[in-house]
């Protein structure tokens, strides 16, 4: 049935970042509405952020449009332009290839949530604005590296640049 | 800036249905968030329905995934499974090619609104469930016809089947 039974779609906490970079994401969980309902052309997720949690490392996508709408609580959108308060109903767009790295942080004492849409593409490259890391994704999965393509090492992961 | 200034994005009332089929859509308006913010891979619109207004004629898409989330008020989702009340936060998914025609109707005395996402594709065919009509869209625009491809006539438009 087209109307979703949201109570039947689980929230999943999983972070693919390598090493200690994954640690700040314990308070983030995703409800994968698009995957659960048969959409294949774009992902639609509800992202829930507990107090103090981050949506992602600050990043931008080369091939995939991204859109979000706040649905609950208050978050701070951090991008190259500074910090922007996001309340329920507030929206943000990140066109593919726009090198304005962004993420949301829940700086409040209450849970927050937003709806996010991202195109499904055959391949994708994303760059992380605050560390020397990129990720390439394709049919065989995702691989993190330095921005010059060289491997990350245990020492390098988490280096601020 | 990625955060959208929603007050600067106009609501537009425009209906491309031919002839008298366009008449029931005076109470519908669209705020084209995706177009206004440089997204090209999918459309993101806020659709506002005044009391009594319809989102569209009941239809389904062959090439384009569609997703919606209610953001204000109450609507009735009508599809092949019946009628379903949609409250703020409720969501629905319509995968491309799923022949379950759908639309939303505002049966209340207050305005209602929802966020809707639809893939941008090179071409598209949509079928209307309750009348003998289809629409084909491509680089040269959109053309409405009967489902067998023959032209609509003034008499045919609005015929219930």
UniProtKB/TrEMBL annotation, chains A, B:
<dbReference type="InterPro" id="IPR051610">
    <property type="entry name" value="GPI/OXD"/>
</dbReference>
<feature type="domain" description="Cupin type-2">
    <location>
        <begin position="46"/>
        <end position="117"/>
    </location>
</feature>
<dbReference type="InterPro" id="IPR014710">
    <property type="entry name" value="RmlC-like_jellyroll"/>
</dbReference>
<feature type="region of interest" description="Disordered">
    <location>
        <begin position="139"/>
        <end position="161"/>
    </location>
</feature>
<dbReference type="InterPro" id="IPR011051">
    <property type="entry name" value="RmlC_Cupin_sf"/>
</dbReference>
<keyword id="KW-0479">Metal-binding</keyword>
<dbReference type="InterPro" id="IPR013096">
    <property type="entry name" value="Cupin_2"/>
</dbReference>
<dbReference type="Pfam" id="PF07883">
    <property type="entry name" value="Cupin_2"/>
</dbReference>
<dbReference type="GO" id="GO:0046872">
    <property type="term" value="F:metal ion binding"/>
</dbReference>
<protein>
    <submittedName>
        <fullName>Cupin domain-containing protein</fullName>
    </submittedName>
</protein>
